Each structure stands twice: as C-alpha cells, then as structure tokens.
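It would be a great kindness if you could assist me with a short task in structural biology. The matter concerns a single protein, recorded as an amino acid sequence and a row of backbone structure tokens. Could you please explain, in whatever detail you think fit, how the structure tokens follow from the sequence? Thank you for your consideration; the sequence and its tokens are set out here:
___
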Amino acid sequence: MIINDWVHTIAGFFILLSLALGVDSSPFFYSKYWLFFTAFVGLNFFQFGFSKVCPLGLILKALGVPEHRH
C-alpha cells in the first residue's frame, strides 16, 4: 500500500472508532468528548485540501512507506 492508501485507511478507522466511543447510542459508548477526535480528523482532511500538507503522510513518508505504486 502507498501513503495515500494508508492515510485513508487510518483516518477511516479513527473516525469509526471515535464515533463508536462518542455516540450515546453506541454499545461502545465511553464519552461524548471522543467526538472532538472525529472533528480533528475531519479538520485535517479539510486543511489538506488547501495546503496539500498531511501530518500523517509526512510521518508515513519518514517511516519509508512508498509514495507511488511500482
């Protein structure tokens, strides 16, 4: 998998996890404050649209994850 694939996979997982932990009707509900984490992930996607800088992408690149398919 390339960086783009990992970013979408990890972000999707974090969104689903934070919704499961933050929505009252979820069987995994812990605290409504987990919804702030959902907003944080969404804001990162939003700022990427303008700046083309993704903090997770930079971390993955430093870890050696390929940027392009061969």
